[in-house]
Amino acid sequence: MENQKEIRSFILRAALFLLIGAALMYVLHVTFLEKTSYGRYRNYLAQEDVDVLILGSSHSANALSPTQMEKLCREQGRDLNIFNYSIYGMRIEQMYYFFLEALKKHTPKILILETFAFVPLDDESRDILARRAFDMLPLSRNKIRAIRACAPQGGHWSYYFPFLMYHSRWKELSEKDFKMPWFKSQWDTAGKKGVSRKDRMEQEDDYFHQPLDLNTPQEINSSQKAYLEKLLQIAEEKGIKVVMTCVPFKEQLGMDARELAKINLYLENTYADGEQVHLLDMNRMWDELDFDYGDLYNEGHCNRYGAKKASAALAEYLMEQSIV
User: Fold this and answer.
1) Contacts of residue 148, Cβ cutoff 8 Å, sequence gap at least 6
2) Is residue 296 within 8 Å of residue 24, measured between CB atoms?
3) Sign of CA dihedral 142, 143, 144, 146
4) Mean pLDDT throughout 255-260?
5) Number of structural domains in the chain
6) Domain of 118: which CATH number?
7) Full-model pTM
8) pLDDT in tens, 89-109
9) Tell me: the pLDDT tens digits for 133-158?
10) Would you say residue 124 has pLDDT above 70?
């Protein structure tokens, strides 16, 4: 009898030790985790519903404001919850796996895909982008597949368990790292409020008044095709309409906006059917939007003035095409 009590006492002490250890590891994990996209992740999970989900890179993160788009839609009698889950540098391969992850929580009516995702990804960027996209996600079969497909070869344990990567980050920790995991006020506007800057570029030349070559489609590579087609198939099965779009810019990462227009032309000719899949290339709308250098804060990103134009153009397109 005494032995049984000792055994039960030992089991309880061991369970309590493991519980405290697990809680401590969780606190350390969320504190040391790099927070680039952590706020968006938490706020996405907190949404009651998401009608329109935006997946893209820093281009759409800066240029598409959900609050402005929602306001314009309400003025036309459409009450929508729009969430911008753009992650700096995100490419189509990461978008595919993140779309699968996003569907675990919400099934949007419309998915916005920003087409800068089809700019080729160099090997040096794979590590940074995979971590920004997947570090905050809980370990799951989808996360494991995403890491195997998107991260550099070798050393995957630190992707599965990010604390292995960030445990030495203590010298970089800021107040944000300690507050963000525990205080809703630190992330409750992430993915909803625009992030654009006020800075305006000086006029350099007549770039935004030059004609585009709309007769020479640029095909995407086989890997990009595979991920896009799988994503479109899942969206169709779920009854989700897809709008591929490109916000106005000049040049970034070696990709000129005029060259991306050729990729958009290929995407439009190959995948857009006007029903399930649509495409809006805002780089074809420079004159219509009265877009120029003053609407950028650098050559690759809209400032708040350009964002106002881009957000309005996308909201109007969704309503004019009866997509929403």
Assistant:
1) 156
2) no
3) positive
4) 93
5) 1
6) 3.40.50.1110
7) 0.91
8) 888 999 999 999 999 999 999
9) 888 888 899 988 988 888 877 778 88
10) no
Is the pLDDT assigned to residue 1 strictly greater than 60? no
Amino acid 298 reads N
Instruction: Confirm whether 204 is domain-assigned.
Output: yes
Assigned token pair, 81: 């919850």
Q: What is the 3-state secondary structure (H, E, C) of the chain?
A: CHHHHHHHHHHHHHHHHHHHHHHHHHHHHHHHCCCCCHHHHHHHHHCCCCCEEEECCHHHHHHCCHHHHHHHHHHCCCCCCEEECCCCCCCHHHHHHHHHHHCCCCCCCEEEEEHHHHCCCCHHHHHHHHHHHHCCCCCCHHHHHHHHHHCCCCCCHHHHCCHHHHCCHHHHCCHHHHHCCCCHHHCCCCCCCCCCCCCCCCCCCCHHHCCCCCCCCCCCCHHHHHHHHHHHHHHHHHCCEEEEEECCCCEECCEEHHHHHHHHHHHHHHHCCCCCEEEEEHHHCHHHHCCCHHHEEECCEECHHHHHHHHHHHHHHHHHCCCC
The domain of 287 spans 37-138+191-320
Mean pLDDT of the chain: 88
Instruction: State pLDDT tens for residues 164-189.
Output: 777 677 778 888 888 888 888 888 88
